[in-house]
């Protein structure tokens, strides 16, 4: 088995309560990922998702192509990055949630982007973005509490 890291982006479908849907997505991801030894982080802002997943390559592919792509809460889902890895950056979290953070906003500003839009990430900026995402604290509790 080989481990892989996948980074994808999507838009949240139009809904009345995006925070409730976001909480449900995180809860489902945590339950599924913990049973399947998948790790990662989800970042949400401006109606966009960006999620990094790590684990067995076959399990990551199955999760993305058979589950995430078919989830009606995501639209315009697109893989930006998929590579084999020897080490995991997210091994402490089956699904870490990171909300809007100054480091991410600063990263986008540094690359001449006015706001968070993960579709603008490219081969040059993705590795740095993943490193920043890995360094952020988990905000799942604050999402639940709000």
UniProtKB/TrEMBL annotation:
Molecular functions (GO terms): blue light photoreceptor activity; FAD binding
Signal peptide positions (record): none
Gene3D superfamilies listed in its UniProt record: 3.30.70.100
Domain BLUF: 3-96
Protein name in the entry: BLUF domain-containing protein
